[in-house]
């Protein structure tokens, strides 16, 4: 009922875009000098809409992220909206440069709190049960939002992966200076970067299932950038890409498509032609054979 009640909120704003998830609301806008006044007007309209629908906004929890440090100032509910370097939205700590450093630090601390309980239960629980516990309680923590925070710099991701390895060592009784690679290959355990690539593969496969032609693969990629090269069958990429543009999901989906079609064009064909019921099995096979412990693929993205 609440979703129906607030469903018309996005129609209130003219220049900004409103995204809703339950009672969490995010207002997005690209910065242009002449739009600042219009964004403030959108906020006033939101305030009017709230009053009309007898809803109260917690102004103290409302935050503003200004990616380019333009020193913008907006007002809502008679208060100036606080400008912050990062804020938590839907479980992700989103910073103004989308580096996700704060989110990864929070994740690392959260995983570290699990080390001592794991060491304790290791004395009484079988390795099989410990592995099940990892997949049920710890892996979902890493998987949530990995499609976004997995674009972070390699250096900060390695800190999280180091903690992940510590957990594997406890589960399998691997000593500190012994490699975990053989064990994770055996049990098909993905590190954080590989989890990101796996989620990226899911995005690509869903697009290919929806569209039979790369020219219409446009959920994350602009149509004018999607003309496939007739000779190589790859998607056109920008000649010059900054580090930030390389992190864009659209560019990473395009890059993964190009990598896969160069390695084995049949993979793309399988993704296109597989029925929804068999697609999950195909993705699991792809995860186990091409993503797990594939440093060559990982290095292409970090």
SSE-based structural type: mainly alpha
Ranges where pLDDT stays below 50 over 5 or more residues in a row are 212-218, 220-227
Could you say which overall geometry the principal axes of the C-alpha atoms support?
globular
Order of helices and strands: HEEHEEEEEEHHHHHHHHHHHH
Q: Could you tell me how far the N terminus lies from the C terminus, measured between alpha carbons in angstroms? A: 44 Å
Strand order of the largest sheet: 1-2
Helix content: 40-55%
Number of helices: 14
Cα-atom Rg, whole angstroms? 23 Å
Strand tally is: 8
Average pLDDT works out at 82
Reported for the largest beta sheet, the result is: 2 strands, antiparallel
- SS strand fraction: 5-15%
What does this structure look like?
With 302 residues, this protein is mainly α. It has helices spanning 2-6, 36-52, 101-112, 115-122, 127-143, 146-149, 154-172, 181-186, 192-210, 243-246, 249-263, 265-273, 276-291, 295-301; strands at residues 17-21, 24-28, 63-64, 75-76, 79-80, 82-83, 86-89, 92-95. A two-stranded antiparallel sheet has the order 1-2. The chain has a two-stranded parallel ribbon with strand order 3-6. Strand 7 and strand 8 (92-95) form a beta hairpin. It is globular, with a radius of gyration of 23 Å.
Layout of SSEs?
Elements: H1 2-6, E1 17-21, E2 24-28, H2 36-52, E3 63-64, E4 75-76, E5 79-80, E6 82-83, E7 86-89, E8 92-95, H3 101-112, H4 115-122, H5 127-143, H6 146-149, H7 154-172, H8 181-186, H9 192-210, H10 243-246, H11 249-263, H12 265-273, H13 276-291, H14 295-301
Parallel strand pairs: 3-6
Antiparallel strand pairs: 1-2, 4-5, 7-8
